[in-house]
User: Which sequence fits this backbone?
């Protein structure tokens, strides 16, 4: 969603704000803006479209703008009101003295707007955020205290927000607060920062504090004071961040997505490290606190997630059921929260989320928690809202993922599910020693197999080029690779905008087959195992309708050469682990098609990396 950043200190604020917004660009990119105090006056600079447009505006006025050492900035992903300069943040009140940036949604903005208009406020945008600017201004008129004005305003607003506010008459001060949206404070020497996420401040400081819901921080260059909504002072809890700025560089790759695909062998090693120690030792998951006796008695698991994380959850269902014999239901968080969900204290509820900030998944786990379920979170962000609300945690250790299309975090989620399923199976004693040894061995050699695929990526690049002009694409698979088909299709559609769909191969003849002719590529995922022959027959049916057939397989079966126009061969692997290998060529295929079409691979249109609104 949107990203916010604030700086107060002795350096040129706009440089720090623009750098910060660049590293938050993954959160939204349809417009941006900064508010600065220049020579005692609050001035706004805004642009529609990519951040580069704002940079150009700043460049044209740099001599004037660079004088300011305090400011707030915003990168927007539109929710209320089209992407336009009028709707871009920061927003101001009538007199222009208050400037405000906001991430989230003010749910009661219509009621507030009616009240504020009656008091004489003139609205200039279609956003929900502008109400907060007017509200803070009206509270400031009563109190002449910016922190108090923000506190009083938050008592009246409903919804989710991370806010940063400056006021022309309150020199060198930023007030920021949050409720159900992420916000982190960074502490420097003679300077302080606030941002939606760590990448915006990591190159300046590693000392940070995550603000909790309803806390308000008042920052000046040399002070930071946090209070809660009842005005109690909160002691500063300063953490040292483990992040390295180098993680945010493309390291010579053309796009972050390609770099992140290439990081996957190391990611697998990272996730296994410390958890899978030796073949004989049980898997160790230190942050899983679910009592072992309770775990043995579990009779149901529910997994909630969205998008790519939902696909990892679907693979998770398959392996937990296979290894542990516990029934698992998987549901999109956005569906889970709006029906009579049957959850209780005997159900383990697992939330899966790269960001740990996805609003629907947060709501789903909160709902389940209220009903007494143990909440286990699989996330790439141990510092996120979900992680902080979890009873148990499986940190996936993929490092920061910049590209909007998730790749390495999906891989890390899959490996985490293998570890979790083996951990549970070891506690339950539901899997034989030999099977365990084989699985652990296969996990250890997986990085080499991924490396092998990456070494031959040019083969996939050629296929990508050949099929890049097609308007539609079908991915088919069965069993444990059905989610791989869905994920392959999602990767392709989100970065190339090609209409790609994943189907269970057995479902083809129940409808989708009607679409097949020589304008439709069909990519069949044919990993050796239980369903190999079945998918082969489904592929025959598609070929008989003249579809353009592509195979992704670990088989050297000669029959495939007649049936398929192109074959992507990958190293042999057991069927149960095959999703972790089969996804890699599909990520590369999507990447090369999008790159060949000249699309904005790392920042596809209409998407945001962190979806913090329901
Ligand atoms: C797709 C993608 C999205 C996310 C989804 C959930 O490449 O990244 O589908 O997977 O928005 O986000 P998280 O995992 O952060 O909860």
Assistant:
């Amino acid at each position: 969603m949107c990203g916010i950043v604030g700086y107060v200190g002795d350096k040129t604020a706009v440089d720090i704000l623009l750098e910060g917004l660049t590293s938050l660009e993954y959160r939204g990119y349809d417009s941006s803006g900064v508010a600065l105090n220049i020579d005692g006056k609050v001035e706004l600079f805004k642009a529609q479209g990519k951040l580069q447009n704002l940079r150009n505006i700043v460049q044209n006025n740099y001599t004037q703008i660079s004088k300011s050492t305090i400011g707030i900035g915003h990168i927007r992903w539109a929710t209320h009101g089209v992407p336009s300069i009028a709707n871009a943040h920061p927003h101001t009140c009538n007199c222009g003295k208050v400037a405000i940036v906001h991430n989230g949604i003010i749910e009661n903005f219509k009621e507030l707007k009616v009240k504020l208009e009656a008091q004489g406020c003139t609205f200039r945008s279609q956003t929900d955020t502008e109400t907060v600017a007017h509200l803070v201004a009206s509270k400031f008129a009563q109190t002449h205290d910016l922190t108090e004005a923000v506190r009083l305003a938050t008592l009246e607003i409903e919804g989710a927000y991370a806010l940063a506010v400056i006021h022309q008459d309150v020199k060198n001060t930023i007030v920021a607060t949050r409720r159900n949206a992420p916000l982190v404070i960074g502490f420097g020497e003679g300077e302080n920062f606030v941002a939606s996420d760590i990448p915006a401040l990591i190159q300046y400081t590693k000392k940070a504090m995550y603000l909790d819901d309803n806390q308000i921080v008042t920052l000046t260059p040399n002070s930071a004071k946090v209070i809660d909504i009842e005005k109690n002072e909160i002691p500063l809890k300063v953490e040292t961040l483990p992040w390295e700025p180098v993680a945010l560089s493309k390291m010579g790759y053309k796009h972050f997505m390609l770099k992140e695909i290439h990081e996957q062998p190391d990611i697998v090693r990272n996730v296994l490290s410390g958890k899978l120690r030796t073949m004989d030792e049980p898997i160790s998951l230190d942050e899983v606190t679910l009592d072992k006796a309770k775990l043995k008695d579990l009779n149901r698991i529910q997994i909630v997630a969205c998008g790519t994380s939902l696909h990892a959850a679907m693979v998770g269902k398959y392996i937990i059921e296979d290894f542990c014999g516990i029934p698992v239901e998987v549901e999109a968080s956005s569906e889970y929260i709006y029906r009579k969900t049957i959850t209780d204290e005997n159900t383990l509820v697992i939330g899966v989320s790269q960001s740990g900030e996805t609003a629907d998944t947060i709501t789903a786990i909160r709902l389940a928690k209220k009903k007494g379920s143990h909440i286990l979170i699989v996330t790439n962000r141990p510092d996120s809202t979900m992680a902080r609300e979890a009873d148990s945690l499986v940190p996936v250790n993929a490092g920061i993922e910049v590209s909007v299309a998730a790749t390495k975090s999906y891989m890390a989620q899959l490996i985490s599910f293998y570890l979790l399923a083996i951990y549970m199976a070891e506690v339950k004693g539901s899997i034989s020693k030999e099977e365990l040894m084989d699985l652990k061995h296969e996990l250890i050699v997986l990085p080499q197999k991924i490396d092998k695929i990456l070494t031959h990526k040019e083969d996939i690049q050629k296929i990508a080029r050949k099929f890049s002009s097609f308007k539609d694409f079908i991915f088919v698979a069965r069993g444990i690779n059905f989610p791989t088909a869905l994920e392959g299709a999602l990767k392709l559609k989100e970065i190339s905008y090609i209409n790609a769909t994943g189907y269970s191969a057995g479902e083809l003849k129940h409808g989708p087959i009607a679409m097949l002719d020589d304008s439709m590529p069909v990519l069949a995922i044919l990993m050796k195992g239980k369903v190999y022959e079945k998918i082969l027959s489904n592929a025959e049916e598609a070929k008989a309708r003249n579809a353009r057939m592509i195979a992704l397989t670990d088989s050297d079966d000669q029959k495939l050469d007649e049936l398929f126009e192109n074959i992507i061969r990958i190293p042999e692997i057991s069927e149960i682990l095959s999703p972790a290998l089969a996804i890699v060529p599909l990520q590369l295929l999507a990447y090369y098609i999008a790159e060949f079409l000249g699309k904005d691979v790392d920042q596809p249109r209409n998407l945001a990396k962190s979806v913090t609104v329901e």
